[in-house]
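Budget justification aside, the reviewers requested a transparent look at the raw inputs and outputs of the sequence design task funded under Objective 1. We therefore reproduce one unedited record. The lines immediately below are the structure tokens for a 146-residue chain.
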């Protein structure tokens, strides 16, 4: 199946950005690891990052026409602000898993609420880059024929 990983604002800076919260692995390393695992499992995974809300929204609209079976998304700061990005995911009706590197519930109060969690298939927060891998494992399991 075709799978899509979406990273929101500032995640292009992973590796050097607040390593206390986000570790030292780069986005490129996360993406290549996920791509390899998807390929090994017989799937096709693409990764996308943008800092602008409308670019992310348009990418999700396009995914709606591309036979994407599942999305793994870290909306980053847009988690806490963007009804528009949430609405885009709801509009295309592609199932998605929400991932956060840090534990958003253990940080500032403004990070505790997500506009995505109630419509996500599941949420993983606080497990670092492993969270993306676990999300991908869950996607594989969902895509197995019954
Ligand atoms: C984040 C958590 C958000 O609160 C923050 O704005 C991010 C990254 C995470 O992966 O832990 O940019 O989504």
């Amino acid at each position: 199946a075709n799978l899509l990983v979406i990273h929101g604002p500032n995640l292009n800076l992973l590796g050097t950005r607040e390593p206390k919260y986000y570790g030292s692995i780069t986005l490129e390393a996360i993406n290549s690891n996920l791509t390899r695992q998807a390929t090994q499992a017989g799937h096709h995974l693409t990764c996308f990052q943008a800092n602008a809300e409308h670019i992310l929204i348009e990418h999700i609209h396009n995914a709606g026409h591309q036979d994407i079976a599942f999305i793994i998304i870290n909306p980053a700061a847009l988690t806490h602000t963007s009804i528009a990005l949430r609405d885009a995911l709801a509009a295309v009706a592609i199932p998605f898993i929400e991932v956060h590197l840090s534990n958003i519930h253990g940080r500032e109060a403004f990070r505790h609420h997500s506009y995505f969690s109630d419509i996500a298939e599941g949420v993983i927060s606080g497990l670092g880059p492993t969270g993306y891998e676990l999300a991908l494992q869950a996607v594989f399991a969902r895509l197995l024929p019954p």
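The chain has a mean pLDDT of 97. Residues 10, 74, 76-77, 79, 100-102, 104, 111 surround DQA (CB under 6 Å). Computational costs for records of this kind are itemized in the attached budget.
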